[in-house]
Amino acid sequence: MNVTDIIAQLPYSKPFLFVDELLHVDENGSIGTYTFDENLDFYKGHFKEKPVTPGVILTETMAQIGLVCLGIYLLNNELKNTQIAFTSADMQFLKPVYPREKVTVISQKVYFRFGKLKCNIMMKNEAEQEVCRGTLAGISIPEL
Q1: Interatomic CA distance for residues 51 and 82, integer angstroms
Q2: Which residues, 6 or more positions from 34, have their beta carbon under 8 angstroms from its beta carbon?
Q3: What does the alpha-carbon distance between residue 108 and residue 25 come to, in Å, rounded to a whole number?
Q4: 41-62 b/e with 16+ CB inside 10 Å = b?
Q5: Is the peptide bond before 54 cis (omega within 30 degrees of 0)?
Q6: Best CA proximity match to 64, nearest among 100, 95, 89
Q7: How far is Cα 122 from Cα 90, in angstroms, rounded to an integer?
């Protein structure tokens, strides 16, 4: 499965798609990028004078690139008739991310078994500074 196929299978669309490109994915992890568009609605009210990307959006970006893209790759053809559910997050936020910033998300698989995927994930800004990191987990469940 190639990166274009993985992005096409993501269960998101704009304005809630936070993956611009998937640079690498294999059985051990994934790397991708996203640039935060200054016109996204949440910037209008999240600090009026100096907008900052909310931590929940940073977490979602890390989950989409580092967990869901990797999960789609690992499940490959088994993705049909399943739904991916986010199960846990343990995050640390180290630096703010502003509108128009491009971030890179790097994911490393901790384990994948019984449909559950757990990853250590970090986000860097264009200056290669770590802006947040954490451990995220999700599970694939059969659709009812």
Answers
A1: 37
A2: 18, 19, 20, 61, 65, 102, 103, 105
A3: 10
A4: eebeeeeeeebebbeebbbbbb
A5: no
A6: 89
A7: 12
Instruction: Give the chain as a DSSP string.
Output: --HHHHHHT-S--TTS---SEEEEEETTEEEEEEE--TT-GGGGTSSSSS----HHHHHHHHHIIIIIHHHHHHHGGGGTTEEEEEEEEEEEE-S---TT-EEEEEEEEEEEETTEEEEEEEEE-TT--EEEEEEEEEEEEE--
Active site residues: 46
Each residue's pLDDT tens digit in the chain (144 positions)? 788 889 998 889 999 999 999 999 999 999 999 999 999 999 988 888 899 999 999 999 999 999 999 999 998 866 666 777 788 999 999 999 999 999 999 999 999 998 899 999 999 999 999 999 999 999 887 766
Place of tokens 């299978």: 9
Sign of CA dihedral 121, 126, 127, 132: negative
